Amino acid sequence: MDTAESGADGWEQLAPGVARRRLPFLDVTIGLVVGDGGVLLVDTGSTVAEGARVRLQVRELTGRPVTHIALTHGHFDHVFGTSAFGGVPVFGHRALDGCLEHGRDALREDAVTYGVDPGPAAEAAAALVRPDRLVDDACELDLGGGRTVTLFHPGAGHTTHDLAVQVPGTPAVVFCGDLVEESGEPQAGPDAVPAGWPAALDRLLAVGGETAVYVPGHGAAVDARFVRAQRDALTARFTAS
Fold first, then answer.
1. What are phi and psi of 53, to 5 degrees?
2. How many domains does the chain have?
3. How far is it, in rounded angstroms, from Cα 197 to Cα 200?
4. Among 68, 14, 73, 62, which Cα is nearest to 41's?
């Protein structure tokens, strides 16, 4: 996979066979991991149309279709594009399934609040895809050619059901979802678990190590020093009297 020559604008290669793209809407970051036997997409965007564009881009970039999807958490801007990938296995934390089952209307309302047109928001909510591969603490996914990635729950933080993706290599890459944000302050909505968030970042750091590339749910890729600084800021923010 050579993002410089593919013509798929906006993709940045982070390591051999590992890339990410910052989507125009809300600066959502999605990820891509390519093995000899599979192509993993991390998050799917904010609408069905956006997911469909990503599907075509991945085909252009790799010459192959997406074969697996991992959802980092259940907010609309990370899951509403999933229905564009019909039939692809979808991995998510076990608690995500219940959140999507009961939260369809709230997600549609959130999407409209953040600027999605009501029609596409309703379309995505009606077609909402729940994960069919449920992760408790961690699982390994073999993408072929010696490429095995780990999907793991670092603990509750941004949501109760955060899922991160570790890709070993040189450098290692960790897709963090919205546990880490670079383009703005981390958002703590009603489903956040502030008391657990710093510990979740500690687990990301323990799994990724000092030299990993950490990919936030929004914004530019960062290093371990940035994640530690955000952990310390969250600790101060949530423990301040």
1. -65, -40
2. 1
3. 5
4. 68
Token pair 């469909």 is at which residue? Answer: 52
CATH of residue 134? 3.60.15.10
Please tell me whether residue 141 adopts helix, strand or coil conformation: strand
For residues 198-210, give the mean pLDDT.
97
Q: Give residue-wise pLDDT tens across range 216-240.
A: 999 999 999 999 999 999 999 988 6
Q: 36 near 147, Cβ under 8 Å?
A: yes
* 101 burial type by CB count under 10 A (0-12 exposed, 13-18 middle, 19+ buried): exposed
Q: Are 107 and 128 in contact (CB under 8 A)?
A: yes
Per the structure, the complete domain to which residue 234 belongs is given by: 3-239
Map tokens 């502030």 to a residue.
194
Q: Name the token pair of 65.
A: 């279709």
Residue 179 contacts residue 139 (beta carbons within 8 Å): no
What pLDDT, on a 0 to 100 scale, did the predictor assign at position 239?
81
Q: Using CB atoms within 10 A of its CB, is residue 211 exposed (0-12), middle (13-18) or buried (19+)?
A: exposed
